[in-house]
Amino acid sequence: MATRTTCFWLLVLGAGLGLVESITGYFGFRLSTTINETILFFLFNILVETIVVLVIWSVSQGIIRMIGLIHKCKAVQLFWPFLCVYVLYGAATLATQVRDSFSYQDSKNIGTVCSSQKENIILIIVDTLRQDRLGCYGNPDIYTPALDRFSRKAHLFTQAVCQIPITAPSHQSLFSGLYPFEHGGRYNGMACRPDCALVAEILREQGYATAAFVSSAAVDGDVSGLSRGFDYYDDRFFFYNYDQRYIQSMPVRLLASLFGWRTSEIRAGELNKRIKWYLPEIAAQQPFFLWLHYYDPHMPYQPQRPYDRLYDQGYSGQYRGDFQTILDIHMGDLIVSHDDMVHISALYDGEVTEVDRSLEDLFRTLSILPDRVMDRTSIIFASDHGESLTEHNYYFFHAEKLTDPSLRVPLLLRFPEQASGPLFCSRLVMLLDLYATLLDRAGIQAEPTRNSHNLVSLLSCMENAGDSDRIALSENGDRFFLSGGNHDLHLDQKSFSLRTESRKYIRHPGGEEEYFDLLEDPRELHNSMNTDQTIEQYRTLMSTLEPSLRLVVFEANKPSAEAIRQLQALGYIHE
Predict the structure, then answer these.
(1) Whole-angstrom Cα distance, residue 500 to residue 494?
(2) Which of 14, 189, 405, 426 holds its CA 20 to 30 A away from the CA of 463?
(3) What are the CB-based long-range contacts (under 8 Å, 24+) for 331-337?
(4) 4-11: long-range contacts at Cβ-Cβ below 8 A with a sequence spacing of 24 or more?
(5) Using an 8 Å Cβ cutoff, are 323 and 283 in contact?
(6) DSSP code of residue 265
């Protein structure tokens, strides 16, 4: 009977701690989820904690008996010393959860409160998001209600392109107003030049409180250099991901810490938890600059239910959007059917809709900030690059190709003074234009870069902007992905493109060329090298630029072993 009573109380204690842990996790910082996800979240934690209690009980009995402190005693007599151990464990569990799950604050790094009436700025980047996957850009089949509503009072740029279709260098161009060959970050794992001024640094010098929340190791602050200028830079990649996303238990966290188990990314729901915890802090320090980076549409494509079946409910095949499947297809090691390709593309679309749901939660949270903060806040929404979903026989990646599925991105600007929209702008613009645009919104007269144009000025004089002949330069970043352990720079193996509003010229390693009339051939299917007489001006310009494009401007810029490991986990390096 005593043994049964002891087992009963052990189960009660384990289930009780698991329940308390689940409640604190769910209501304290977790997004609202479906009932099935909620039940699973609670069951995981209760089960893990109950097992841990039984393990502690068994170990405590063995230890006490082995050291000879108690001889021939009944199991129930060991309950009280066990309870003391368990109380300490329970306290440590809850303390660890609070510490690891909530954004910590460093009093030394909090920006100063500013009474200025300068405008607040929020920059939202959704990684790997194609422009043509959004309802506001004319896609009626993909469900993106949050961004569609956001666009109704925004400026939409239909021809926005990135300077390099790879995460860290693209962000480095955005924050510096420089091309990759100028700022020195040519691949993920490389920092931009330490002497180039970044937007956050300039804003902080002008009295802005600055904070960033990022969700991929590709923009790790120390590795990429993007944390420069931010008072608070949240780039913690814990044991939160996919199959582990329901577990908040201390044993899992402890093992993850001991064995160095770290994910290379976190999902939008987790990012929102951290953002919402910090928002009251940053909102009280006006003016503020807040950068939010979501990573979900990037491969692997593993949307949670119901988004995993939202766009391909009739699929009966065996393939999913896991990392290995996509990598094998991309590398040509796995040949799948057309239906399988459609299904994997549908999983990408599911992640787009899922991240839109998280953006809806974010916009709702921003709208209820006190003191009408959002009436003094501009929001800029964009992606760092696109994604190829089988176009040009390039499967489920982005870094190597310079076609529009990889280069063309959504770009929406929403200002406090804007009363109506959407207002479409078809001018060719670049992500590095956001450097000048962000500074303009802050009212800062900074030294302009040669290539970054203020998009606000473009909008105010669209009829006579004078940019119809503007040329956007882009480069690819394929070498690291195909490196096979060779992590040296091989700039001679890069491709470069020159793009106008109506033409695109691409030069590949070895001198191969492609030329597309984007008005007649928007899908870039027909190489018109031999039929278009305007090709020579692009050849001449590329020849002029080539010495600079091959230049290594930051010799010490090599990725660390940890950066290489993280990039390999993200799919950028294939050994």
Answers:
(1) 20
(2) 405
(3) 331/574
(4) 5/76, 6/75, 6/76, 6/79, 9/79, 10/53, 10/54, 10/57, 11/50, 11/53
(5) no
(6) B
In contact, 237 and 210? CB cutoff 8 Å: no
**Strand 472-475's sheet: what is its strand order?**
472-475, 496-499, 503-507, 513-517
Helix (H) or strand (E) holding 377: strand 377-382
Q: What is the DSSP letter of 216?
A: B
163, two tokens: 């300077």
Angle at alpha carbon of residue 316, lines to 130 and 333, rounded to 5°: 65
HSE toward the beta carbon, residue 324, CA cutoff 13 A: 1
* Maximal C-alpha separation, the chain: 98
pLDDT tens readout for residues 340-399 = 889 999 999 999 999 999 999 999 999 888 888 888 999 999 999 999 998 988 888 888
C-alpha span between 426 and 329 (Å, rounded): 35
Answer for the pair 220, 190: CB distance below 8 angstroms, yes or no: no
Q: Which amino acid is at 160?
A: A
Contact in structure between 145 and 368 (CB atoms under 8 Å): no
Q: Which of 261, 345, 265 is nearest to 301 (CA)?
A: 345
- The answer to whether 442 and 167 have CB atoms below 8 angstroms apart is no
How long is the chain?
575
Measured at the alpha carbon of residue 415, what is the angle toward residues 297 and 294, in degrees to the nearest 5? 15
Structure tokens at 105: 């604050």
CA-wise closest residue to 290 among 236, 230, 235, 237 = 230
Half-sphere exposure of 456 (CA within 13 A, CB side): 16
Question: Which uninterrupted H or E stretch holds 498?
Answer: strand 496-499
Q: Is 75 exposed, middle or buried (0-12, 13-18, 19+ CB in 10 A)?
A: middle
Query: Among residues 358, 368, 352, which one has the least CA distance to residue 272?
Result: 358
